[in-house]
Design a protein that fits this description.
This protein has two helices and ten strands. The chain has helices at 40-55, 83-98; strands spanning 2-9, 18-20, 27-35, 59-68, 74-79, 102-103, 116-118, 130-132, 135-140, 149-157. The strands form two sheets. Strands 2-10-9-1-3-6 form a six-stranded antiparallel β-sheet, with helices on one face.
Length: 163
Amino acid sequence: MRNLILVAFVEPVADGLVFPRTHWPLHITLVRFDVGTDDVAERAAVLAAPYAGAALGARLTVGEDAGFGRNGSVPVSLIQPQPDLQALHEQLVTAAESLGGKILTPAHTMSGYRPHVSHHGAKRLNPGDAVVLDRIALVDMAPDGDRTVRRVLRLWSLDEVPG
């Protein structure tokens, strides 16, 4: 089983970056999915590319703080509703499903999607912060079967978009 996730990073990252699962750069989850084949990552990147490219540059605003997870124990900064971000999420969900991907949290997709950035210790966003959607990535949740690290498989960035 291959575990993949598409995210919008709000911190600088590089294509190919490997990081411990406990030290994610700040990000907005777009869709997480499992697939049964190993060759699907390249196909997922091809399907996601036009949607990621179209969404780059969207301006987002950080909303209020909230608590997610069991008993609200995970502190997050909500992202205010924004049509480009919602459309990107929905397009990527559809793309993942077209690959046979199993969405792990279907209740939190489509109309149930609540974009947010989880706090990581002192690293966090604050209400009113402006964020530009400038880094979208496909991340392997267990590269080479190692569940202790994550790897950026493909990064689309605003720097790549012709001027």
